[in-house]
Automatic annotation (TrEMBL):
Domain DUF2179: 226-280
Gene3D superfamilies listed in its UniProt record: 3.30.70.120
Subcellular compartments: Cell membrane
Name the UniProt record assigns to this protein: YitT family protein
Pfam families named in the record: DUF2179 (PF10035), YitT_membrane (PF02588)
InterPro entries: DUF2179, N-reg_PII/ATP_PRibTrfase_C, UPF0750_membrane, YitT
UniProt lineage: Bacteria, Bacillati, Bacillota, Clostridia, Lachnospirales
Keywords: Cell membrane, Membrane, Transmembrane, Transmembrane helix
CDD domains found in the cross-reference section: YitT_C (cd16380)
Highest taxon, organism lineage: Bacteria
UniProt keyword Cell membrane present: yes
TM helices/strands, residue ranges: 12-31, 60-78, 84-102, 114-135, 155-174
């Protein structure tokens, strides 16, 4: 039974990885490549190289990703993640397949700002999903893994410098408008990824100070199927004895608990705090 459950979880995980990777492929091929947006990463490098050579950006992405995979296997060995390999191969194959099945001679619309929004948001959203389940989109992430193992270089700074050089190159290879759009994409990409990851994991942390904790705890345990921690406290002004309840809820559960306390314990004092990540039983595991 346990083995069956593990296989099912692995299947669901790779189904999610596949869906996220295909979103990256779609956003990159339909919105990024035709507009020559070059805000870093392997696809940004491929856009620039595609302009100065007769090889398409999709083919350059395939070549660079495969070269990085070989480099990763050579330098990282067993430390090289299976998920990273899967995503790199799927993305490279997906872009090549899209080029053959849906050739595009120009941008989808005549609205470059609109297309920039989709070129940023779709891959960034999918990358955030991948990061959240312990996978990555490959590419320059492989270089980051190599840097992490063999040097003390600040990985984030090193990759940002690479992305910055790619974006600057777009200004010379294409035109000022494309370069400025690429700079906007470079600045917005990390913000979108961070925002999506935070919202995926967002929970509500409750600190409830009350006189009668029993009804509230029963509601938490029986209705919301959560647990809580209870301890005694003393008010600094009145020196009266109070009870403090600590608990964590998903966003939908938080609304139910807040409404219950308002209706049934109006004298209770509630502090509700957003938490971007909760690790423990009932939430995210340590692995």
């Amino acid at each position: 039974m346990e083995k069956h459950s593990k296989l099912w979880n692995t299947f669901l995980e790779y189904a999610l990885i596949t869906a996220a990777t295909l979103i990256i492929v779609g956003g990159t091929y339909v919105f990024k490549f035709p507009n020559n947006f070059s805000f870093g990463g392997v696809t940004g490098i491929a856009v620039v190289l595609g302009r100065v050579s007769s090889i398409s950006p999709s083919t350059w992405t395939f070549i660079i990703n495969m070269a990085l995979l070989v480099l990763g296997f050579a330098m990282l060995g067993k430390d090289f993640g299976v998920k990273t390999v899967y995503v790199s191969v799927l993305m490279s194959a997906g872009l090549s397949l899209m080029e053959k099945l849906f050739p595009m001679s120009g941008p989808l619309t005549q609205q470059p700002v609109l297309e920039l929004v989709f070129a940023i948001s779709l891959p960034a959203f999918a990358s955030a999903v991948l990061f959240n389940i312990g996978a990555s989109s490959g590419g320059t992430d492989i270089l980051a893994m190599i840097f992490r193992k063999y040097s003390t270089v600040n990985i984030g700074t090193a990759l940002l410098i690479v992305d910055l050089f790619v974006t600057i190159a777009a200004c010379f290879v294409f035109d000022a408008q494309t370069g400025l759009f690429s700079f906007c994409g470079l600045m917005a990409k990390s913000l979108v990824i961070d925002g999506v990851i935070e919202n995926i994991n967002l929970c509500k942390y409750f600190t409830i100070i009350c006189n009668n904790p029993e009804p509230i705890c029963k509601f938490i345990n029986n209705e919301l199927m959560r647990s809580s921690t209870v301890f005694k406290a003393e008010g600094s002004y009145t020196h009266s004895q109070r009870t403090i309840i600590l608990t964590v809820m998903t966003r939908s559960q938080a609304v139910l608990l807040r409404n219950y306390i308002r209706a049934n314990a109006p004298d209770a004092f509630m502090m509700i705090t957003n938490s971007s990540e909760i690790i423990g039983k009932g939430f995210k595991g340590f692995i």
